[in-house]
Automatic annotation (TrEMBL):
Keywords: Cytoplasm, GTP-binding, Hydrolase, Magnesium, Metal-binding, Nucleotide-binding, Potassium, tRNA processing
Cofactor annotation: K(+)
Residue numbers binding (6S)-5-formyl-5,6,7,8-tetrahydrofolate: 23, 86, 125, 459
Residues that bind GTP: 231-236, 250-256, 275-278, 335-338
Alphabetical list of InterPro entries matching this protein: G_TrmE (IPR031168), GTP-bd (IPR006073), GTP-bd_TrmE_N (IPR018948), GTPase_MnmE (IPR004520), MnmE_dom2 (IPR027368), MnmE_helical (IPR025867), P-loop_NTPase (IPR027417), Small_GTP-bd (IPR005225)
Protein name: tRNA modification GTPase MnmE
Subunit structure: Homodimer. Heterotetramer of two MnmE and two MnmG subunits.
Location within or outside the cell: Cytoplasm
CDD domains, per the entry: trmE, TrmE_N
Amino acid sequence: MINSETISAISTATGEAGIGIVRMSGENSIKIANEIFRPMGKSTLIEAENRKLTYGHIYDGDKLLDEVLIVKMLAPKTYTREDIVEIYCHGGIISVRNILKLTIEKGARLAEAGEFTKRAFLNGRLDLTQAEAVIDLIKSKSEVSYDMSIKQLEGSLSGKINEIRNEVMSMAALIVANIDFPEDEIVEATYKSLEKDAKNVIKSLNELIDNSSRGKLLRDGINTVILGKPNVGKSSLLNSLLRDERAIVTDIPGTTRDVITDFVNLDGILLKITDTAGIRETHDEVERIGVSRAKEAINDSDLIIAIFDGSKSFTEEDREIISLIENRKSIILLNKADLERKVSDSEIKELLGDKKYFDVSILSGKEIKTIEDEIKEMFFKGEIKESSDVYVNNLRHITALKEAKSAMDEVLVDIEQEMFLDLLEVNLEVALASLGEITGDTTTEDVLDKVFSEFCIGK
């Protein structure tokens, strides 16, 4: 156990609800709950059956606070591997806060953000990748990201990392054995074996790193920016994708003067869509700031949907937009296809090169499916699904994997040059430490604080 303190927190969202939950964990959680709980039957909470709900009331002295159900869960078979008590009271701000306050007055301490899960990690119930999967699970906004979080919580990523670590440890053990018992024939065979093993480890690391871009998209969604001059149909496209009148649409250029962000669920994957102010020269200070923010949004985007008015000739502002998206993933739409097109194919070819474009009439809404299919094709080869592959979607994990891969690259170079075996051991230790940072086998208090600070209090 990490310490003997008992922690307490509200584990349900603030606001009106059918049920609110106050949770305690620690060696005194049952004792504290027993002092404030009066069961309807004769037995006390201490005598109550493990993992069985008991009906009764919470009292602060002689004052009734609420009618509740309460359950005790005895260590070590609990979420934190400590004794846990959960009090199910009526939902609402006053009831849960009064009960929380009472548990603290009786000796518990207010839990820090993520402290229940942090204790689960420190007490060996979860590794760090599984702990991080808990917060991903809570924050999931699509079925695909939810399913991926469930797999990570079950240990899919940590299993793969431990598999690679075991290979590296086997290499280190072989080196130590040869250092202790050097023989020319054994050393020669050792270099060949180590070279094969190093290449296998690097291959596995590369597969995880290569999958990280897809994993990040599956978890966080596609950061999509709608770009174009004023009054080309940007807000109409946003509304069509959302199937809702989210943005104001008028014939007046400059109606959208700031970025508008919303989310679309595209067959289980999240699109974070930003409608920007129209790109143009303007003397309006507010609109000018909006244009500046639109250009800044481009740098953070995974995808740009650039819209041009096909019923009008291209202008310098259109050419500026094309230059902004030159080296970025983009879908180009020539809007207002219901009107006579004023832009020739040759002009389009000259400006866009080999970039694909679509003639559309956004107001009709008929081409929305085409646009969605193009997004799926661009990012997921036409089919969005979470496969059986292990995906890395966390920047901390990706950084550690790249550090491990860099160390293993050095190991392979040293092996090929038949450097002294004890020199190989140094970079192997670096690789092991980097991989251990992912699962939490080798980590620092600062890293743990950073990871668990992203949790809500009560989880």
